[in-house]
Amino acid sequence: MEATKQAITISSTIQQPAAKVWEFWNAPEHITQWCAASDDWHAPKASSDLRPGGAFSTTMAAKDGSFSFDFGGIFDVVEPHSRIEYTLGDGRKVKINFTEANGQTEVVETFDPEDTNPEDMQRAGWQAILDNFKKYAESK
Prior knowledge:
It is a single chain. The protein has a single domain, classed as Alpha-D-Glucose-1,6-Bisphosphate, Chain A, domain 4. Helices cover 26% and strands 41% of the residues. The chain is built from 3 helices and 7 strands, in the order E-H-H-E-E-E-E-E-E-H. Helix 1 crosses helix 2. The chain is globular and about 40 Å long. This is SRPBCC family protein.
């Protein structure tokens, strides 16, 4: 019998109020500025219908044009400035909580791991994207 995989959690504290963090996290014009795990990748296209039942998609691509993929799914829960839950195209679940205190916002992301890459690699990749988000959001 195969063991059930544990969800992976990553987090970061952003030096911005929740309303700003929410905007930078969800608006396609911002997503394309931060959604990459390393400098040799980028997000040339993003769309988001931010409501329960709405779809989102972000194209993630190597800057040299060698590889790209779409990361997308359907929003299940949207609580403005507070919480997002969605289901990825492959059925995995993701939960994101935004908690503001003293003008800063903690972002906690919990996601079901996929079966292709080791969990430590997945954690590192998602954390790198979150770290890139933090850098972008704090520069605004």
